[in-house]
Amino acid sequence: MIKINENYLNLEQNYLFPAIAKKVKEYREKHPSADIISLGIGDVTRPLPRACVEALHKASDEMACEKTFRGYGPEQGYSFLIEDIIKNDYEAFGIELSPQEVFVSDGAKCDVGNIQEIFSTDITVAVADPVYPVYLDTNIMAGRKVLKLPCLAENGFAPKIPDFKADLIYLCSPNNPTGAVLNKEQLKEWVDYAKKNGSVIIFDSAYKEYIRQADLPRSIYEIEGAKEVAIEVRSFSKTAGFTGLRCAYMVVPLALKGAGKGKDVLLNDLWRRRHCTKFNGVPYIVQRAAQAVYSEQGKKEVKQLIEYYMTNAAIIKKGLSSLGLTVYGGENAPYIWLKLPNGLKSFDFFDILLSRANVVGTPGSGFGECGEGYFRLTSFGSRENTLKAVERIEKLKL
């Protein structure tokens, strides 16, 4: 028999969200009449902004005409989208980027999972705990040493600077699952640490549009010197409802270097080589839809989407807090991080919530050891279901 990559045997048996989906499926089969409300997986429920739909239609019509038909596009992304990304997401905040530093992709999950390929397998990786599982799992698959950075309530669920040397560091702000946001002082400490240790930070800011406080950074590049140590990942999924359309982008600065074969190497060059080899680019019609996010109409409609979900978050947080429960998040992020009462375990509460309230959430322990005793709820449901779910939880009398 062929020999396998044995690192895969070091993974948890199932990826978190499919495992939850399986449990829900089994429950549905036993209780076919159950009205189950999902506040679990972070999938959006509102339709695409009209501006994006109109752009999709127009681009689709172009694909039906010989003069405007497009085949393979540039793997890095079309210039029309890259230029609008730079103008609206960076220059508007005083950050300068060149088009060569932006790579359009089919999702932030893919980017944070794939970027590790350009680094050696004998480096040390640091991830927050609790953490989005992809950071951890993809590095386990590669056989790297992964160390956890505990994120506890007493430090605002922010990872502390480690007392060991970490080569590759994953930071997510606003954080999934806790909803915590790193401030500029905290990010500066990480940038200084990375400079001192020759480290690289993978900064996941997929939820940047949900930040409400004006003094909180939307990009790590707001910190001086961050371009020398950080790669930034962003997505259109939670911003404009592209979870089913798939479009994101990653910034790999030209100032960012690594070492190989006795010389300095631009990480931008390595990622470009990998990107062009393994990826044929996001479809033209999808990139036109993403570009529409930056139109006047698109910006207005995206703002409305964000407000809708953040109102849901406020409803959930207020409802749970009124029960005397300790609740985090929901103010600068679309996630509610609930501290479970009476020493309840995360998966035990999942079962209680599903069986007694027909509501689905995500056990905190699925995000790491430090997530045990917590539970994540999302604001991505409909308003009706959000209100109904809170009412059902209230009746549990936790």
Describe the structure.
With 398 residues, this protein is of the alpha/beta class. It is 37% helix and 16% strand. The protein has helices at 16-30, 50-63, 79-90, 108-114, 133-142, 184-197, 237-240, 267-278, 284-292, 296-321, 346-357, 383-395; strands at 37-38, 102-105, 124-129, 145-150, 168-172, 200-204, 230-235, 248-251, 257-260, 263-266, 326-329, 335-339, 359-360, 362-363, 374-378. A hairpin with a 2-residue loop joins strand 9 (257-260) and strand 10 (263-266). Helix 2 (50-63) runs antiparallel to helix 9 (284-292), helix 3 (79-90) packs parallel to helix 9 (284-292) and helix 10 (296-321) packs parallel to helix 12. The longest helix has 26 residues, at 296-321. The model has no long low-confidence stretch (mean pLDDT 95).
Report the C-alpha radius of gyration, rounded.
21 Å
* Secondary-structure element string: HEHHEHEHEEHEEHEEEHHHEEHEEEH
**Shape designation:** globular
Q: How much beta, percentage-wise?
A: 15-25%
- Total helices: the number is 12
Helix content: 25-40%
| Structural class based on helices, strands and sheet pairing | alpha/beta
Kindly list the characteristics that best describe this protein.
398 residues; alpha/beta; 4-stranded antiparallel sheet; 15 strands; globular
Could you give a short description of this structure?
The protein has 398 residues and is of the alpha/beta class. It has helices at 16-30, 50-63, 79-90, 108-114, 133-142, 184-197, 237-240, 267-278, 284-292, 296-321, 346-357, 383-395; strands at 37-38, 102-105, 124-129, 145-150, 168-172, 200-204, 230-235, 248-251, 257-260, 263-266, 326-329, 335-339, 359-360, 362-363, 374-378.
